[in-house]
């Protein structure tokens, strides 16, 4: 399921709510195994899009019992670049969080903008 959000300060919270609802609908009672990591990752990616100046942000979530795919696409200029945040930095950890929590993640160019796709696999799949 895909949903478009305006690139404003409400977008991260709205995207989190959307993802929670979609996981619960798709996984009927088994969403708790995925929810925490997926919600944190969508929050980080949408926040990055807002900070980059996106006019709109598309969140696409595909989930079944074996796998969850989360794609966040925006129309903002620039490319997501991981960086190392100092201990007392207030930002710079978003992609490190994605890297730590997702089993796999990729970036793709858009026209305009770009997308980041994060994937999780159920153990044994």
TrEMBL record:
InterPro entries reported for this sequence: Anti-sigma-factor_SerPK, HATPase_C_sf, HATPase_dom
Histidine kinase/HSP90-like ATPase domain mapped to chain residues: 23-120
Name of the protein in its database record: ATP-binding protein
Top-rank taxon: Bacteria
Record-linked SUPFAM superfamilies: ATPase domain of HSP90 chaperone/DNA topoisomerase II/histidine kinase
GO terms for MF: ATP binding; protein serine/threonine kinase activity
One Pfam family in the UniProt entry: HATPase_c_2
């Amino acid at each position: 399921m895909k949903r478009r959000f305006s690139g404003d300060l409400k977008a991260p919270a709205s995207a989190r709510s959307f993802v929670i609802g979609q996981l619960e609908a798709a996984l009927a009672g088994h969403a708790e195994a995925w929810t925490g990591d997926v919600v944190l990752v969508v929050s980080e990616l949408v926040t990055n899009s807002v900070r980059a100046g996106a006019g709109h942000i598309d969140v696409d979530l595909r989930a079944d019992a074996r796998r969850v795919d989360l794609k966040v696409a925006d129309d903002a200029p620039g490319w997501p670049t991981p960086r190392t945040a100092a201990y007392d930095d207030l930002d710079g950890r978003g992609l490190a969080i994605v890297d730590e929590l997702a089993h796999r993640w990729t970036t793709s160019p858009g026209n305009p903008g770009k997308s980041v796709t994060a994937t999780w696999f159920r153990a044994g799949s």
